[in-house]
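S1.2 Input.
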Amino acid sequence: MTEGFDTDTLWDEFHRAVNMNSEELRGYLLADASDEEGFPPDPDMGIDKLGRGVLHVLSKRKGDLTKADLDVMRQVVELVETMGDRTDDDSRRELMSVGHDPLRA
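S1.3 Output.
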């Protein structure tokens, strides 16, 4: 359990904040990580660490969550709450990198 959230509440808040499904998020992260020359040579292909964490959490059941998963969930909920539903390009890109499309809110 993480600070200030019990697992059930955090699970609900996370799934409210993340309004993209795993397929949409994966596609967005891969497109965002690629550039004119393709993907960078590192094994994570330049995909944001928090975004990878969100994909990992989306593939799990609540009972299988680890402390690291709960930390990712907390970070996402706090980011989305802090940024709100800003739709300028930079903010939208940052929010979408964690699975929240502010245009869907």
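S1.4 Remarks. The two ends are 27 Å apart (CA to CA).
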